[in-house]
RNA sequence: GGCUAAGUGGCAGAGUGGUAAUGCAGCGGCCUGCAAAGCCGUCAACGCCGGUUCGAUUCCGACCUUAGCCUCCA
């Protein structure tokens, strides 16, 4: 199996070729922890999760790094607004994020560094960039000198002159060029800060990712894969490349991938539009596998337009799969080659769902296909086996339901259909669906009830 | 204004240099007391205009439209 992935840097699909044989490294920009995660955060975790599963099935060693940004002006603002200390905000929302991502079926990354644990590395990284002549210190700020790096703009396809035209905000007085970005900025007494050669301050946003990568891999190691949301290409990743390329002669990163954004009714989620969909809201009325399917239903590079029907469509597939898995199967045999092949072509999840949908037809009759279906779902992070077990109702409930069904069938047999339908309604109300087939009444419990 | 992507049936969404998966919805049928589920069948689409080609939806160019980025953002 060769894993092909679109590379934003070259704008082509390319085979992933790790620098060192059987081990591969991947870094993904994680969340800033100041609020409840939304479906956009979820997509940005689920997409790399699928890639991680592929990588780990092929390579002996995979480093999967996802950071936690726990120093940021938005956090400071949230702390003031909520009247809670910064530590409490960040620890609370770090936990919420990790719990939510696990709930959605994501594997834990191998490394989850926090900015606050990486300050000394950030400072030494900045010192190195200054020493190499790519940054300057002014008024307790450290700024990256974009003019000193001549590949600036390669990732986003922007030209230096054009960038200056588009600047809408006033150029801060201390900047040599409006493109220059902050590596370190001063903190007042009431904002978090650390002692540094440039006074008490805190890191800028972009430098943290680069420092964490270098902290884990070493300054002179090229990162194999770097991912994140589409909206991070510029300026965040552009700036990372600039900094990272000034630390070492080795290339900063070979393969860049970006997932498309989640739109809600064709608009980007934003607080001002009031259309942000939070995971904790969705969790109230939807099961997690359905949400995961919904977020994987579009190809990862396409924008995903979230509408009222998105979850319904996902639920249809989920129900279809659940209904076709033979609960008797218990196969540990690894039969996931086809799903891996499909996914290894640029993470083609919509095609994977077509494959699953095809499998549901044969899975009912064929135990082996049922096992393949279950394992293919499991490879995608959809755990239906455990769910099937959980769906078994208690003895007491079973007896109650079966008594009602018997009563209903007696009524049906004597033609008293109105009374029989009343019982069916009663059962539907508690989440039981009836299916009358060949004189037998089958029933099942809605997994969400 | 610039940059990046995208425009496929009613909706969602793959894919391909030789006319196009799949899901939902629709329609017809089987089944059912009626449903539900399932099964079978069926209708229906490649933004627009040029170019390359025996042939383009697929490649190239222009145009139109949409989204994202250019300011915090997954």
Q: What is the residue-mean pLDDT, rounded to a whole number?
A: 89
Instruction: Give the percentage of residues in beta strands.
Output: 15-25%
What's the helical proportion of residues? 40-55%
Overall number of strands: 15
CATH classification, class level of the largest domain: Alpha Beta
Arrangement of strands in the largest sheet: 4-3-9-10
By DSSP (H or I, 4+ residues per run), the number of helices equals: 16
Spans of 5+ residues with little confidence (pLDDT < 50)?
166-170
Radius of gyration: 26 Å
Q: What's the number of structural domains? A: 3
**Judging from the principal axes of the Cα atoms, what is the shape?**
elongated
CATH superfamily (homologous) name of the largest domain: HUPs
Question: Which fold name corresponds to the CATH topology of the largest domain?
Answer: Rossmann fold
Describe the overall structure:
There is one protein chain. With 449 residues, the chain is an alpha/beta fold. It folds into three domains: 243 residues, 3-Layer(aba) Sandwich (Rossmann fold), CATH 3.40.50; 115 residues, no CATH class; 51 residues, no CATH class. It contains 16 helices and 15 strands. The protein has a four-stranded parallel beta sheet, covered by helices on one side. A four-stranded antiparallel beta sheet has the order 5-6-7-8. A hairpin with a 2-residue loop joins strand 11 and strand 12. The chain is elongated and about 90 Å long. The structure holds one RNA strand of 74 nucleotides.
